[in-house]
Structures are given as structure tokens and as C-alpha cells.
Write a structure and sequence with these properties.
The chain has about 190 residues and is α+β, with helices and mostly antiparallel strands. Helices cover about 20% and strands about 50% of the residues. The structure holds 2-acetamido-2-deoxy-beta-D-glucopyranose (2 copies).
Length: about 190
Amino acid sequence: MAQILHLYVLSTLLFALSLKVTSTSHHSHHELKSLHFALYQHETINKTGYIIVNGVVGAGVGQTTTPFGTLFVFQDPMTVTPNISSKVIGIAEGTAITSSFDGLRSISIAKITLRLKNHMGSISIVGGTHNVKPADHPVVGGTGDFMFVQGYVTSSPVDLKGPTVTYKIEFHLYWPPYANKFSLHH
Ligand SMILES: *[C@@H]1O[C@H](CO)[C@@H](O)[C@H](O)[C@H]1NC(C)=O
Ligand SMILES: *[C@@H]1O[C@H](CO)[C@@H](O)[C@H](O)[C@H]1NC(C)=O
């Protein structure tokens, strides 16, 4: 009898505990802030992007390829529509190192400064990118209103012809629950 009572108490406790955990995670899920939007990055060779160190082997320098080992540095405007004359609300500063022998892939590091209506600051991204196919880049953090932000950005080619190439950059940003507490005290 005592054992049955014990079991009963234990299962009630466990049930209460599981309820608590569920409601807590539900609560924080509710508070999770996110932002989803797209901008267009424009890169003009020898104007907003330069080869700083020549690559050593593989594909030649072309519209979409660079030799393995090429070090490229850029400071590209990001506009609200694919038209380069549209409003600039972001700047992408970074570097890319060609990491595949076909000259199409690179490892990219970038700081993207954003001036959105209600959010100012920057996010930092890092990851592999592809010159002619969509690629996801993890967001590793941010500054200003983007402090502690995580998520990913997807880059996809829009226009690869002509001296200026254009990529669509889709942002999927998520603020962890502790980011709210930080901004309250900041
Ligand atoms: C960019 O500048 C480099 C070095 O001056 C030159 O070799 C290359 O042809 C230029 N590329 C374009 C597309 O103008
Ligand atoms: C881009 O915007 C400019 C200025 O608003 C406009 O004159 C031009 O026609 C637009 N280009 C395209 C391809 O829509």
C-alpha cells in the first residue's frame, strides 16, 4: 500500500514537473522575437570589390569564378529592391577566400551594417558561399539592436551579367530570450 502511495506521489510530482517544463518552454517560445526580410547586394569588380591576393590554381578569373586561394575584399551596398538605384539600407563589408578548385565556392566572413526602420546595428556572418547557387550562412552574432542575434542569411544570385553582380540576401534573424533582458538594462 505504502509503495503504491509512493508511486502515486512520484507520478503526480513528475506530472506537475512536466507541466511546469512545458509551460516554461511554451512561455519562452511565445517571447522569441524574430525578423525576416530581404535586401539586394550589389558588387562591382574594381569598384566595391577587389582581388587583394591572387589565387594559385584551378579556374581562371571570370564573372563567377576565381582561382583557388584568391583573397577578395568587398564593401557592397545593399538596397531594398533589385534596382541598384533604390534605397541603400545596408552595407556588407567582408572578405572571401576561394576554397574550391572549380573556383565557384568560397569561405566568406562579413559584417552587415543595417539601418532598418526600427533596428540599427550590425550582424556578423560566416560560412561557405557559392557564386552561382543559393547558400545559407550562419549568423554568429550582432551589435546594437542586433546584439545576441542568431539565425541565418541565404544568398541567391539575381544577376550575374555585366560589371555589377546582384545577390538577393534573405535574413532570418532570431533574438534569444536573454537579449530582451539585456536591452532593458542597456
Ligand atoms: C580589375 O583590376 C585588375 C588590376 O588592375 C585588372 O587586372 C582587371 O582586369 C580589372 N577587372 C575588370 C573587370 O575591370
Ligand atoms: C531603377 O531606378 C531608377 C531610378 O528610380 C529608374 O530610373 C530605372 O528605370 C530603374 N531601373 C529598372 C530596371 O527598373
